[in-house]
Amino acid sequence: MLTLSGVSKSFELKNGSYPAVRQVSLEVKAASIHGIIGPSGAGKSTLLRLINLLERPDMGTVTVGGKELTALPERQLRRERQKIGMIFQHFNLVGNATVSRNVAIPLELAGVKRGERLKRTAEVLEFVGLADKAQQYPAQLSGGQRQRVAIARALANSPQLLLCDEPTSALDPGTTADILGVLKNINAALGVTIVIVTHELDVVRSICTEVSVMKDGGIVDSFSRGEHEFLP
Ligand code: ADP
Ligand code: ADP
């Protein structure tokens, strides 16, 4: 489903260049829930952003669903990127737009016609259990509801892959469990492959089928559920 091969990324700093991700190769199986864990500064978030080319790798290739994204011209890349959803720790909703509009934004960007947009927006809001909040604004919602809106937005274009950057780190334990339930359901019911960056081991233990451990920009360990006491 997703293959990273020899991917590296350095950031230019005042006193030289800092290698945030070093020579990472990674295979994420279709329909898996793949966790990326490791200490703060290990490069997890950068690695996630390299998957949809929000960061351009300095070296290496990224292949999603059989298409090598790193080889595509900008126009085609934009189209392929629409098949990859992403959610964030702080939800990143547009504050002055309604829930419905937030969810419709990626559909507008993809050129989906109004009628189809309305239908699809209603569908994904129903899926995350927020059909009754369509006309509210993000500030009127709880953290868990905001993350559900972000999930609905990420699902709007029917992605094969959903990237999650610390999706529950701003949520209390009860709400975390709810959101993990939604992610599990997206994986099970829609067959969406999920990559999730988190520093919360409970998150990994409750939903991940595979885990990669990052340290100093590299993957230092990886295992599947049942292979290791860490992921029984
Ligand atoms: P993690 O998600 O594991 O905490 P990050 O991927 O956020 O790690 O960061 C890895 C390293 O790269 C950190 O040292 C961070 O300061 C640096 N870094 C990340 N993004 C940038 C950027 N845009 N410019 C400069 N340095 C960055
Ligand atoms: P950050 O700087 O925290 O990444 P951004 O403002 O760049 O926040 O937006 C993060 C995400 O929010 C984007 O990746 C996108 O999904 C969504 N988003 C925000 N504003 C828009 C917009 N005008 N059109 C489409 N998507 C948007």
TrEMBL record:
Keywords, alphabetical: Amino-acid transport, ATP-binding, Cell membrane, Membrane, Nucleotide-binding, Translocase, Transport
GO molecular function list: ATP binding
Domain ABC transporter: 2-232
InterPro entries: AAA+_ATPase, ABC_transporter-like_ATP-bd, ABC_transporter-like_CS, MetN_ABC_transporter-like, P-loop_NTPase
PANTHER family (alphabetical): AMINO ACID IMPORT ATP-BINDING PROTEIN (PTHR43166), METHIONINE IMPORT ATP-BINDING PROTEIN METN (PTHR43166:SF30)
Protein name: ATP-binding cassette domain-containing protein
